[in-house]
Amino acid sequence: MSQSAREKAIERLREIGREIYLLSHVNALLGWDQETYMPRAAVEERAEQLSVLEGMIHDRITSEELGELLELLGAEAGNPGGSSDLLPVDRALVRHVYRHYTRQTRIPGDLVRAIARQVGVSQQVWAEARKASDFSRFRPELETMMELTTRKAEALGYKQHPYDALVDEFEPEMTTARLTDLFDSLGDRLSSLLDRISAVPQVENDFLFRTFPEDRQRAFSRSVISELGYCFDRGRLDQSTHPFTTSLGADDVRITNRYLENFFNAGIFGSIHEAGHGLYELGFGEEIRGNLLADGTSLGIHESQSRFWENMVGRSRSFWEYYLPRARSHFPGVIDDIDLERWYRGINRVEPSLIRVEADEVTYSLHIVLRFRLETALLSGDLQVGDLPEAWREQSSSLLGVVPESDADGVLQDIHWSMGAVGYFPTYALGNLYAAQFRSALLRDYPGLDSMIASGDFKPVLKWLRQKIHRHGSALTPGELCRQVTGGGLSADFFIDYLEDKYGEIYRLNAD
Ligand code: ZN
After folding, report:
1. Residue 512 predicted with pLDDT over 90
2. 327 CA to middle of ligand 1, Å?
3. Kindly report the CA angle at 120 between 133 and 374, in degrees rounded to 5?
4. 237 within 8 A of 225, measured Cβ to Cβ
5. Which has the closest alpha carbon to 19: 81, 76, 84, 63?
6. How close is the Cα of 66 to the center of ligand 1, in Å?
């Protein structure tokens, strides 16, 4: 192809990409409004508005014109970036668009519509079944959803395991075999750390359940996240039932949170978590600004940014060396009697529990290992939907040492399966693994990280993250990013070592 034809094709691809980018942000604005300020009565028309917009986005990403452009540019299965004459940033864009185009065109229209219908039904039945704590009510809907999900995996295609096709949507290039390796070592070593923690005296944290007025929590959250680098000229912090982060534009990345007056952790750590997501989205580089590459490269990498700030910074001793005096003045008289040591140990208390979203840093990933094992077994046909509650109890007992007495506290606790989001859960644990591996690379560059944090100097950390991770957006795949930043492929060792160090000290596991 001539150079000018290629230039015209890439120009047109950028144009279509830009439209998709803008439409997605309009879609996100409607979604943000729905979760924050929309009057309740508007719900039906809003659903219609969203579905029209999603249809417009889908039409563009699956259009014949886009298929022809990708072909013209030389994108194909063995060479998704297309012609080697293209600029690297354009090759990255072609690869990104090719990935979405092929994924979305492989799923037949009638299957897309069947899944969308089933999501509506399943979600409602799931909510009722959870309320009644009765899995048998949800079972037929989940069976249908799993059948459709299997059809989707078959349509997408895979090399080894149908689950590969599903997890790839959320974590490009990740495979079931790789996850099994990572999660087996994670499961074994975390269970054994948990056993050791459970054998020694528990740390106290009752002071976290005193009264922390909501407006003061909000003010404290705002001041903390703005010091971390979240810029209120390019974002907002609002309230919603479930905290989330959403991009409405290159300079408009909003976060939401909720506050519990009688539990300190939920508010502040929720805010730091979402700010971590926000900082990622606000950190995309000039090179990719305003195009489809200005997006998180995977959910696992996205989650690594939120968990790095929330847990590895926000739950560190040095962080509270700086912030505890400030927290005391935000909540006058509430925690004056708690010294740094009690505070630090309290906010990091480890306790095996039934509910994933309430889990601490050590047990959280075990909840994910459990779900991963059940999802893959369902997909391979080794487990039937009807046997799920029992399989859940077995895994919960062996991984966490606790067994749910009700379906609501067990197999019905998460919304994901009712939405057909199979393959999503692993990204939460992958976030922890990436975060720890990135942290160890950061420590190589900044051995004095702790004293920087203790003095409230977060700028070098953010600068490092922007330079190494954020600016690339989706121009690098998660695997490429991990190797470029850390010098190696993803491993569970960094996270496990980090937890063993931290909690070994908190629980004095190595003391004589
Ligand atoms: Zn998150």
Report:
1. no
2. 24
3. 55
4. yes
5. 63
6. 32
Residue 263 DSSP class: B
Length of the chain: 512
Record the tokens describing residue 504, joined without a space.
């070994």
Q: Would residue 68 show up in a list of annotated catalytic residues for this protein?
A: no
Give tens-digit pLDDT for 221-273. 999 999 999 999 999 999 998 999 999 999 999 999 999 999 999 999 999 99
Could you give the domains of the chain? 3-157 (no CATH), 176-506 (1.10.1370.30)
Do the strands 252-257 and 237-239 form a parallel or antiparallel pair, or are they unpaired? parallel
**Alpha helix ranges (H) inside 381-492:** 388-400, 426-445, 449-454, 459-468, 478-486
Q: Name the residues around ion ligand 1, CB cutoff 5 A.
A: 306
Q: What DSSP letter does each residue of 179-219 carry, written as one string?
A: HHHHHHHHHHHHHHHHHHHHTSPPPP-GGGGS---HHHHHH
Residue 434 Cα to ligand 1 middle (Å): 13
What is the value of pTM for the model shown?
0.97
Q: Which CA distances in Å does 230 have to 203, 215, 376?
A: 32, 19, 38
